[in-house]
Amino acid sequence: MRALLQLLRTGRGWRVGGPAAARLPQAASAGSGPRRAMALYRTEERGQLHSQDYRIFFKNVAGHYISPFHDIPLKVDSKKEENGIPTKKARNDESENLFNMVVEIPRWTNAKMEIATQEPLNPIKQDVKDGKPRFTANIFPYKGYIWNYGALPQTWEDPHQKDKSTNCCGDNDPIDVCEIGSKVLSPGEVIHVKILGILALIDEGETDWKLIAINANDPEASKFHDIDDVRKFKPGYLEATINWLTYYKVPEGKPENKFAFNGEFKNKAFALEIIKSTHECWKAMLMKKCDRGAINCTNVQVCGSPFHCTPEKARSLVESVLTSSSNKESNIDDQVWHFLGK
């Protein structure tokens, strides 16, 4: 347990490119932007994109396979240097509000990519529906997802624990993030984000929190400190978020989604408490103190966890994954616009 707590306190925040990062020189220039560091995570694609066997695996700077769910720290330690490069000094309150986000779905895309919570080392894969890779429908006037969508590592919405504010249990996943910055990101990127607020989606009776955040490297990030800043500087974005989340499953034949708090966005302070709670649930899961169900907790860097494995074992787990370069699934639904309304 002591080793686990030490990792949680001292884990550094790392940044990585998307799948193409595995083909870039590791010693790329650090650049001049805030907190811009050399890639300390790389990704490795296996299988054919948009097929059921497609996977994005993660590696650390030593080249060892790791889990993006369990091995990437939740918090960014802004006091440390990144790869020998001093980070830009942040205000005290901002340094406490820097988290690592694993990007699953880029803005304007439709493929429903997600961390595979039930597979060893939790690679990113495409969700499957009716035996085919799943694509989210286009709801007029939107094309695909309207944010860069992903999750905070080392968090877990416990399906056996009822949230006191929503009176519903968790959805059995890491907590979701809607990143509202100007850059379109790539699946597998790990970025630093500032949390601005949170929305409580109730999905088929489960609490499915949606964090609102902005990339700390965004040119306008310094203007955003809380949820009201989104209303001020990106007018209409929060309303579009409610609209998108309400209707995105309707083309699949499902009912409109509902929200706790009458669809009210809660502020940063509320969001940070939810993150803290889901992080505690994750720690309990990693230490076998709760029922994890089918969640796979294999990890390489959480040394105090009974699910810890060696880098050699992690490599053998990845090598055992059978992939095929054929049978690519085509999809035309991501070009269809659905016109919904009252």
From TrEMBL:
Upper lineage: Eukaryota, Metazoa, Chordata, Craniata, Vertebrata
Protein name (record): inorganic diphosphatase
Cofactor: Mg(2+)
Keyword Hydrolase: yes
PANTHER family: INORGANIC PYROPHOSPHATASE
Family: Belongs to the PPase family.
Matches recorded under CDD domains: pyrophosphatase (cd00412)
Source superkingdom: Eukaryota
Gene Ontology BP term (one): phosphate-containing compound metabolic process
Assembly and interaction partners: Homodimer.
Assigned EC number: 3.6.1.1
Main enzyme class: hydrolase
Organism: Marmota monax
Keywords: Acetylation, Hydrolase, Magnesium, Metal-binding
